[in-house]
Amino acid sequence: MTDFTRRGALGAMGAAATLPLMARPALAQTKLTVGALRFTSHAASFVAYERGYFAAEGLDVEFKFFQAAQPMAVAIASGDADYAVTAISGGLISLAEKGATKVIGGALSEEKGIDGQKILASNAAYEAGLTSPAGLDGKSFGITQAGSSFHYMGAKIAAAEGATLTYKPLQKVPAVIGALKSGQIDAWTIVPHIAKPLAAAGAVQIIGNVADYIPDYQVTTVFTSASTAAGEREKTQAFLRAFARGADDFNAALVDRTAGDEAAEEMVRLIHKYVYTDKAYEAAKPGIVNGAMRINKDAALNMGSVEDQLGWFKAEGLIKDSITAETLVDPSYVPIV
Questions:
Q1: How far are the Cα atoms of 65, 115, 146, 312 from residue 90, in angstroms, in the given order?
Q2: pTM of the entire structure?
Q3: What is the fold, at CATH topology level, of the domain defined by 3-109+218-328?
């Protein structure tokens, strides 16, 4: 165990002990803006809001929705959002290097035995022979921005297959979906609540699983400004406690299925208030159910995955070699695994 991980584990002992506790409303309607995507993977925040876990901690939360990870990181740095959940990106890391942001926990993870993110091919590329990741060489791959999680996933898959990809930055997830459906790009990776409905509708083809190439991938993290992490500990602990309670409910209802069918149905209806809101409930339900990946208990953070991601960003020249995990992460709030 590295010194960094050891310090994080020691610092997290107190945090781990307090996260599951019933709420302590000591903050008296402290207003917060929480950044999110309209993804099932952001359900912990939605559950914490809808079931009063934030309110019970004295937090008056409103959501600010984004369509990509890097604009969310900028919003945290500028003060337009207080906390957010999204993937590690080059933008987030660079802002951390400037002293503007800090990762304080983990959220969505790839886990063996749980259906996770999918590798997709356009129908045109599939018909031309792209029926598995082994055929990716020379193909185009959709990303939001250079240094996004999509860029990282594409590169890791391509390296494993000995493939060379052409990356197409399209800025927003809806634009990537449109490009894949129309055949303007050949391939992409995305969470199952988006991938499976697209495939079921015949708009794209599933050709593989991200977890086969990046096992135990810490897909998303919880983060805030560096000043909040350092100077507003009580508020940050309260946010994480509520978030963790939301994650527990979500995992029990839709991942582990230990809460029963009625709880699962209630959870899907709750998430539908935020995800696939343009669809009728019955049409949205399969995608939400199929998108249920693990959200880490107690917002634990997989430091091995974070280190791997940092190593890739450095190798690609997207961040400075001097940046370390300590630059990006405050390990004192949650268990480090």
A1: 20, 27, 8, 10
A2: 0.85
A3: D-Maltodextrin-Binding Protein; domain 2 (3.40.190)
